[in-house]
TrEMBL record:
It comes from the Eukaryota. The keyword NAD does not apply. Belongs to the 3-hydroxybenzoate 6-hydroxylase family. Residues 6-342 form the FAD-binding domain. One of its GO terms (molecular function) is monooxygenase activity. It comes from Acer negundo (Box elder). The keyword Hydrolase does not apply. This is FAD-binding domain-containing protein. Keywords: Monooxygenase, Oxidoreductase. InterPro entries: FAD-bd, FAD/NAD-bd_sf, MOase.
Length: 410
């Protein structure tokens, strides 16, 4: 069966749904293909910094999400090696783009808000893309696992770290850092009583963090470099939970209670991967009428909390660039060629705007994670004496970014 859709987006994650909603706000319809049967909520929650809130406001869902998530006011960083008192810093500061704003947003709530604002039928679930081919110079044929073929003028890959579209564009698979993350969240029956602070612990080759989403929910993470013996943890939440507790035995009882109260179906483990920065520098972010965004473009480690934030930025910039291309008119006799050329230039504009921002975020996240989790006298000094003191400022600085509004230039 063959269908036609002007704009096809692969992946109903943060980047894909933000791009689709951005286009919808600009009066342009798109089709989102999602391989799973429902929205993917892997990861449970994400730290949402100022740059992300500007993007959420641009698509009109920032206010609703603010009502459901606490404002995080301070960050507390503790070295489990030095024995020095915790370093506490305020997250309230004004940058060149406005006041800082940090909240821990539940991924499920974010995706549901994006989905709710889209027209019915925009997302097509159980639609796995298996191949892409040229129908002509101006159109792509998208082949699905169920035999459906969709003909499209614009094809956008927001299909994550194992992206089919990024592979088609020539990107290599993301590199493995040698580290894994275990993530979880705990829903307390009543008010959990934790202050609106991001609490982090570094040292002994591990990194952990605890941050409230709202009055009843606390999100946590634990990262480490596994040995061959740790392979038995994979797909075994009970063993993951016991492993984290064994590594966090020196933490305050109140913090350990968050892990102890986490239900087994609220714990997952995943390898930490990233795109080599030089691949983003020299690679094809777009080619013709095809491009990638989100984790398909810039998979990064979670050490600065910018993966989801960058995906939101991508969605706004990409929607704006596509809308500008489609709303321009020309007097070319060959309309198909004229539209294709405008789309091609729009996607190139997106790539140009996002390339260096992506490189900056990937590189910073990798280096921060490397220093935080490395061992040895030099690394301990860098982490405990330097990074710990400047981390809050670094996180605020990198989030002091504005991807712009959804307004287009004729």
């Amino acid at each position: 069966m063959e269908e036609v859709a002007d704009i096809v987006i692969v992946g109903a994650g943060i980047a894909g749904l933000t791009t689709s909603l951005g286009l919808h706000r600009l009066g342009i319809r798109s089709l989102v293909l999602e391989s799973s049967e429902t929205l993917r909520i892997t990861g449970f929650a994400l730290t949402t910094w100022s740059n992300a809130w500007r993007a959420l406001d641009a698509v009109g869902i920032g206010h609703s999400l603010r009502q459901q998530h606490q404002l995080i006011e301070r960050i507390v960083i503790t070295s489990t090696v030095s024995g020095e008192p915790p370093s506490e810093r305020s997250l309230k500061s004004k940058g060149k783009h406005g006041e800082g704003e940090i909240r821990c947003v539940r991924r499920k709530v974010l995706l549901e808000e994006l989905e709710r604002e889209l027209p019915s039928g925009t997302i097509r679930y159980s639609s796995k893309v298996v191949s892409i081919e040229d129908e002509s110079r101006y159109l792509k044929l998208v082949h699905l696992a169920d035999g459906t073929v969709i003909k499209t003028k614009v094809f956008i890959g927001c299909d994550g770290v194992n992206s089919v579209v990024s592979k088609w564009l020539g990107f290599k698979p993301p590199s493995f850092t040698g580290r894994f993350a275990i993530r979880g969240y705990t829903e307390f029956k009543g008010n959990h009583g934790f202050e609106p602070k991001s609490i982090r612990f570094f040292g002994k080759g591990t990194r952990s963090g605890f941050i409230p989403c709202d009055d009843q929910t606390v999100y946590w993470f634990f990262t480490w470099s596994p040995t061959s013996q740790d392979k038995e943890l994979e797909d075994n939440p009970a063993k993951m939970k016991q492993f984290v507790l064994s590594k966090c035995h020196d933490l305050p009882d109140r913090i350990k209670a968050i892990i102890e109260n986490t239900l087994l179906d609220s714990i997952i483990s995943s390898p930490l991967r990233y795109r080599q920065p030089w691949e983003v520098l020299w690679g094809n972010i777009s080619k013709g009428n095809v491009c990638v965004a989100g984790d398909a473009l810039h998979p990064m480690t979670p050490d600065i909390g910018q993966g989801g934030c960058a995906a939101l930025e991508d969605g706004i910039v990409l929607a704006r660039c596509i809308a500008e291309a489609l709303k321009k008119t020309g007097d070319n006799d060959n309309e198909d060629r004229a539209v294709f050329e405008r789309i091609e230039m729009g996607l190139k504009k997106f790539g140009k705007e996002r390339r260096w921002r992506s490189i900056d975020l990937i590189s910073t996240a990798y280096m921060v994670g490397y220093i935080q989790q490395s061992e040895g006298k030099i690394m301990n000094f860098l982490r405990d004496k330097i990074l710990t003191s400047y981390l809050a400022g670094l996180l605020m600085k990198i989030s002091d970014f504005d991807c712009g509004k959804l307004t287009t230039v004729s």
